[in-house]
TrEMBL record:
<dbReference type="GO" id="GO:0008897">
    <property type="term" value="F:holo-[acyl-carrier-protein] synthase activity"/>
</dbReference>
<feature type="domain" description="4'-phosphopantetheinyl transferase">
    <location>
        <begin position="5"/>
        <end position="90"/>
    </location>
</feature>
<dbReference type="InterPro" id="IPR037143">
    <property type="entry name" value="4-PPantetheinyl_Trfase_dom_sf"/>
</dbReference>
<keyword id="KW-0443">Lipid metabolism</keyword>
<keyword id="KW-0963">Cytoplasm</keyword>
<comment type="similarity">
    <text>Belongs to the P-Pant transferase superfamily. AcpS family.</text>
</comment>
<dbReference type="InterPro" id="IPR002582">
    <property type="entry name" value="ACPS"/>
</dbReference>
<dbReference type="GO" id="GO:0000287">
    <property type="term" value="F:magnesium ion binding"/>
</dbReference>
<dbReference type="Pfam" id="PF01648">
    <property type="entry name" value="ACPS"/>
</dbReference>
<keyword id="KW-0808">Transferase</keyword>
<keyword id="KW-0460">Magnesium</keyword>
<feature type="binding site">
    <location>
        <position position="54"/>
    </location>
    <ligand>
        <name>Mg(2+)</name>
    </ligand>
</feature>
<keyword id="KW-0479">Metal-binding</keyword>
<keyword id="KW-0276">Fatty acid metabolism</keyword>
<dbReference type="InterPro" id="IPR004568">
    <property type="entry name" value="Ppantetheine-prot_Trfase_dom"/>
</dbReference>
<keyword id="KW-0275">Fatty acid biosynthesis</keyword>
<comment type="function">
    <text>Transfers the 4'-phosphopantetheine moiety from coenzyme A to a Ser of acyl-carrier-protein.</text>
</comment>
Amino acid sequence: MSHALGCDLVALSDIAESVEAFGERFLTRVFTAGELAAARGDTARLAARFAAKEAVIKALAVTDEATVPTEIEVVGAGVAPTLRLHGAMARRARSQRWGEIVVTLSHTDCHAMAVVLAEID
């Protein structure tokens, strides 16, 4: 069995600056309603979810294609979040024969990170 792996690190200040500059337009373009509810406006939680989206894109090896951030959704909060893929991202994962996907999120005072590991059937 093989795997696809992606990871990403995000500065909390980058997310805070985007929220300050673009407000709701940024938030609704990047995050689903469920992600916004789970994050409850916490910049570190938003940044971790953003990092997870980037980690999925890396694991899928998307290089020159536009992606829709809301097609990658971090579901749940707390100890064991999961990922839900929609639209083109779900189709790409199916075409690469992705099976189970695991995600881990973490953050400090200044950075958030995510690692995504998908089994390939």
